[in-house]
Amino acid sequence: MGFVVPPDAYGRFMGRYADPLAEVFATFAEVGADARVLDVGCGPGALTAHVLSRGAAVTAIDPSPPFVDAIHQRFPDVDVRRGTAEELPYDADEFTHALAQLVVHFMTDPVRGITQMARVTRPEGIVAACVWDGPTGALAPFWDAVHVLDPDAQDEALLSGAHRGHLTELFETAGLRNVIEEPITVDVVHPTFEEWWEPYTFGVGPAGEYVTTLDAGARTELETVARGRLGDGPFTVSATAWAARGTV
What does the alpha-carbon distance between residue 163 and residue 85 come to, in Å, rounded to a whole number? Predict the structure, then answer.
């Protein structure tokens, strides 16, 4: 789903939000320097980088070959593998924390993925995940503009975890205890409209794939509507995610 892309393209598209989100999410997940963390769906490494900065040990996994290669190059000492949340290639009880940042909504089977995360986490360890809120997440301004022109376009608001309570339901179904779910928010300043818009043309994720389906005229029309709503810049996108953590 639009994630076998150059890491730089992903970084310009989502890294601008994922990097600051990683700090807030790691705090929510109670990651300390003594933690041993599994970063599930690590992407090019936003969360991995922040967890390492806290002094914790990190193991990472992602299904995208370019992202796995990027982690190898960026963090040569990190054990990073290609794989999915639903089939984690680790023994039981290996980690103190299993974290999934902006991943659950793209899992083929979210309950199985979270169950696997719990399996590889030690008793009393923490499983945590965060997902952009549908109406107020990082991609909401884009989809709001899309819906002006294409009201029936399927956005990312219906994906797993994208509304209050969805993550809690998934976590509890996966057998986790003491589940807490809270909104976490990051504010990202975009200096110009072009800086905000261009990464949507890179084909990353559902939003990028939507843009690639448009002909030149429709793409220009969408860009014009978005500019009319956001302005030429600078402007700030306040991006809210739902975050949940539970105990094994």
Answer: 21
Determine the average pLDDT of the residues in 75-91.
Answer: 97
Which one, of 122, 131, 142, 217, lies nearest residue 169 by Cα? Answer: 131
Q: What whole-number distance in Å separates Cα of residue 91 and Cα of residue 51?
A: 21
Q: How confident is the model at residue 1 (pLDDT cuts 50, 70, 90)?
A: very low
Domains of the chain: 7-134+155-186+241-247 (3.40.50.150)
* Other CB atoms within 10 A of residue 235 CB: 16
Q: Which residues contact 209 (CB under 8 A, 6 or more apart)?
A: 1, 2, 203
In this prediction the pTM is: 0.93
Q: What are phi and psi of 177, to 5 degrees?
A: -110, 160
- How far is Cα 151 from Cα 149, in angstroms, rounded to an integer? 6
Q: Taking Cα atoms as reference points, which of 51, 104, 8 lies closest to residue 59?
A: 51
**Considering the chain, what is the average pLDDT of its residues?**
94
Judge whether 26 and 46 are in contact, CB under 8 Å.
no
Nearest-5° angle of CA 60, CA 85, CA 166? 115
Report the alpha-carbon distance of residue 208 to residue 200 in Å, rounded.
5
Residues 6+ apart with CB under 8 A from 100: 40, 41, 85, 113, 114, 117, 128, 129, 130
